[in-house]
Amino acid sequence: MAFKAFLHVLSAPMAVLLLSGWLAGSASAGPVRTRIVSLNLCTDELLLELADPSHILGLSPLATDCAESVRCEIAATYPVQRPDGENLVATHPDVVLDGTWHRPTVPLVTNALHVPFVQLPSIASLADIPTQILTVAHAIGEDARGDDMIRAFADRLESLHSAHPDRILTATVIGANLAGEEGGLISDLLKRAGFRLSAFESPNGTIALETLIAYPPDLLVTGMISEGASLAEDVVHHPALRDRFTGAHLLALPGRLTMCGTPDTLDALTALIAAHDRLTGTEPSP
Q1: Contact 86, 105 (CB under 8 A)
Q2: Closest CA to 58 of 31, 21, 32, 84
Q3: What does the DSSP assignment read for 26-84?
Q4: CB of 5 within 8 A of CB of 124?
Q5: Where would I find the Fe/B12 periplasmic-binding domain in this sequence (predicted)?
Q6: Which pLDDT belongs to residue 285?
Q7: Per-run averaged pLDDT (10 residues), the chain, 286 residues
Q8: What gap in Å lies between CA 90 and CA 101, rounded to an integer?
Q9: CATH homologous superfamily for the domain 2-158
């Protein structure tokens, strides 16, 4: 029931894709891969949830960085390797997972070794996450585990909603990995939580500090990865912002929650819904 309800939030082509995969089940499952290498943070995180631990040959260096990875503690128990073709020659895996941005030597080596090279694109909304799960699960031969993860994701998403969804508040997002461009992941999360992007935010997800102060949104969302990592993060400490946005009007959202499309992304939605409930008076301020 939860899975069918979840299909209603997806586009028609994606719903057909998921439903066909769901009905096919283990009959369409590929061979289980026992020597898997991931060269990308997002494939790292899904791989750690879907694969048998003994089947993971290596993860990307970002996997163990707790500022960027939601699975850093678990990842620390696995080998880490540079995301390049040279290491693939040494390990000779039977499947390689990566993002769409990769080093040129990677496809050269996978082609030469006749190793499947599976690339995971970035996501634009929560509706893309089941496809990400299915892609990785099928690539490593763990379709059943992928189905289980999608069911759990759908059940949790169905349970998340603000107390007053009809009260649409304004929000501005600044900081690492939280560009608030219309149509992106953070925009989708805000919409589901009962917010809309401030009208003064530019299409590329930026806003002048003076404009932010003159036309303050109901909620300022800041995303931190690591201290001093970028100018976008430095602006969060500006005295004018500290004085203007306090209490329920400020939400610090860890950048790692929106770095990739995984079930943990729902933690970001949960935090935004709680912020909406505080602003509408249905949840006490911490």
Answers
A1: yes
A2: 84
A3: GGG--PPPSSEEE-SHHHHHHHHHHS-GGGEEEB-GGGG-TTT-TTHHHHTTS-B--SS
A4: no
A5: 35-283
A6: 54
A7: 46 43 50 92 96 96 92 95 90 94 90 95 93 96 97 97 94 69 80 87 67 88 60 63 83 88 96 96 65
A8: 22
A9: Nitrogenase molybdenum iron protein domain (3.40.50.1980)
Write the CA distances from 140 to 79, 122, 156, 229, 271, integer angstroms. 18, 19, 25, 34, 32
Q: Is 95 exposed, middle or buried (0-12, 13-18, 19+ CB in 10 A)?
A: buried
Q: What is the pLDDT of residue 268?
A: 95
Residues 220/201, Cβ–Cβ less than 8 Å: no
Alpha carbon distances (Å) from 169 to 185, 191, 280 = 18, 10, 9
Helix locations, 51-195, DSSP H = 72-75, 85-91, 105-113, 129-139, 143-159, 185-193
CATH code linked to domain 169-279: 3.40.50.1980
**Every domain of the chain and the residues it spans:** 2-158, 169-279
Residues making up the chain, counted from first to last: 286
Q: What's at 175, amino acid-wise?
A: G
Distance CA 150, CA 133 (A): 7
Question: 0.90 exceeded by the pTM?
Answer: no
